[in-house]
Specification:
Elements: E1 3-10, H1 12-16, H2 20-29, E2 33-40, H3 44-50, H4 60-67, E3 72-80, H5 82-90, H6 103-107, E4 116-118, H7 122-132
Antiparallel strand pairs: 1-3, 1-4, 2-3
The structure holds adenosine-3',5'-cyclic-monophosphate.
Adenosine-3',5'-cyclic-monophosphate binds next to loops.
Length: 140
Amino acid sequence: MAATRTFSIIKPDATRRNLTGAVTKMLEEAGLRVVASKRIRMSRDQAEGFYAVHKERPFFNDLCTFMTSGPVVVQVLEGEDAVTRNRTVMGATNPAQADEGTIRKAYAESIEANSVHGSDSDENAKIEIDFFFKPEEIVG
Ligand code: CMP
């Protein structure tokens, strides 16, 4: 199977605890290659735009406040079946339900402060990558 790409965010709870390297190591050990990476402070507009699909959910406002509360590291990951591979190593959204050996089991603090985001489909991966990266910033 050919390599595909997915989009990842290392969230403020993880950057605050200096876990950027530890999380990235788990991504790499899962067979994913970081082909783009930048540390940014998301604006409120960016957070609301990125999570627009969740606009009507009760947690939307708190989620946007959390995602703008500190630095995040946005990444493009490449590998065989990258979306599924990344979702497997991330673990369940709620860390209480995450399997052993996953990033969220190891590091997440709560369903909101759950350390990482990963695209849920190839279609959304493309939209999310384009939201944060120009083509020339991605070097495979
Ligand atoms: P993420 O993959 O970034 O996509 C949406 C985020 O909303 C999710 O991870 C969670 O961190 C956050 N979130 C907060 N509360 C909830 C909830 N009750 N159900 C699902 N996601 C939630």
